[in-house]
Amino acid sequence: MPSKRKKDIIIRDLSIEAIGFEGVAVGRHEEIVCFVKGAVPGDVIDAKVKRKKKKYYECRVEHIHEFSADRVEPPCIHFGVCGGCTWQQLDYDKQLYWKRRNIEDLFRRIAKIEVGEYLPYLYSEHMYGYRNKMEFSFSANRWLTDEEIAKDDEITDKNFALGLHLPGRFDKILNIENCHLQQDTANIILNEVRTQGSKVGMSAYHVTKHHGFLRHLTIRYSLAQDAFMVILTTAEISNDSEMKFVDDICQRLIEIIPNMKSFVHALNISHNAVMIESYKVLHGDEYLVESVCGVEFRISPFSFFQTNSYMLNPFIGKIVESAAIRADDIVWDLYCGTGSISLPASKSAKLVYGLELSESSIADAKANAEFNGIENCVFSVLDLHGKNATESISQLPSPDVIIVDPPRAGIQQNIIDILLSSDCRRIVYVSCNPATQARDCALLTEKYSVTSILPVDMFPQTYHIESIAILDLIK
User: Is 432 among the catalytic positions?
Assistant: First the structure.
């Protein structure tokens, strides 16, 4: 006898009160917290319970009875299916409000830190079209939309897609026709590569069966040069038609995109989606150039760089300004990446020491220092969370200022101990995750006071936020 299907639990007329840090709306039902994806504060909804826990429910919107005054119409036809930007339905001023409120809640209520001052927002004037890098995936498993499934027409192109992953689905790709986070020209490139690849019968990569030629398309943009770099990642070329396609799509993009400065063909012959075996520049230069606070950065095909070009100068400028560096200061820049903070900071300091785990990032940092004629930056590869980190860092001259910009997981205890023992005048803690930033700052209040916090919106239409915390040594 077949098992009985569990009856759906629907919470009627649930009022949405707030948005939590991870961007999920919050309501309450009989003292149970309900987390609801896709809702907006001020909505009154019917919520379908997807997962039931002791103290909270995870829900989705089943029906909206009353629309919040803070709701706006999302411009993207893929909104609600694509997981790229989940706040398009929320007015931008309210996006800023909830991001700031979540930072304040994390520091005040969770970490129990008294912050001297929450500074006025540094927000993006470009709500769309701001990303300078987008990575799209090819797939032999295209996600079929509800509209396609509802039609009686035969679906002939379900084995070829170029777009973005659906949330929680590594094996399915949604065809993206127009991504509003990138420039219009980038969308032309995206659609042309998809059209030509499908037209000539190129095979898209199958992520579970591990076969197929086309794997990824990366589009990078330099605001300073108004130029594009296109990176086509494929499996190893196995026949003449595949070789011809790579050459033909390069020539086609040269014809229709006058400001395509570079076309790169990269090889990935492993099951690892991000492993690059080698790459070859088929057109133009091997790098783009971006200008940040008077420093020019060479951006190679796979180097890390902040993705919002329009906010780079104000963001980095605020970090350096907040450090209040003096002419005879020694500065440590921990988790320095490609030197995007170290190099502008070097203009004010005696010496800057940049430490970073990634060898390729340090190579880029050194190259950028040489490119700009900067001689007072010393870059070294070091695993800051490794067992030798404390000994290695102890060999450096004592710092006057320390800048830290860790990954989302935050700082580990060994670095907290190093910061506390440094007795440096000021710590500038830059974070893309205010939750771990607040946790770490609480540990540092043993010797430091949190003087100010500046929220920086680098990622409109998403819940992500950057935060610059200033910590001063308690005298």
Answer: yes
Distance CA 251, CA 440 (A): 51
Domains contained in the chain, number: 3
Exactly one of 59, 82, 432, 441 is catalytic; name it: 432
> Residue 276's domain is classified under what CATH number?
2.40.50.1070
For 25, the domain range is 10-71
In a domain, 299, yes or no: no
What is the C-alpha to C-alpha distance for residues 156 and 144, in angstroms, rounded to an integer? 11
CATH number of the domain that residue 41 is part of: 2.40.50.140
Residue 420 belongs to a domain: yes
Distances (CA, A) of 404 to 62, 300, 378, 451: 43, 24, 16, 16
pLDDT tens, position by position, 344-402: 999 999 999 999 998 989 999 999 999 999 999 999 999 999 989 999 999 999 999 99
pTM score, whole prediction: 0.91
Tens digit of pLDDT for each residue in 237-280?
Answer: 999 999 999 999 999 999 999 999 999 999 999 988 888 999 99
Residues 156 and 101 placed together within one structural domain of the fold? no
| Alpha-carbon gap, residue 64 to 164, rounded angstroms | 28
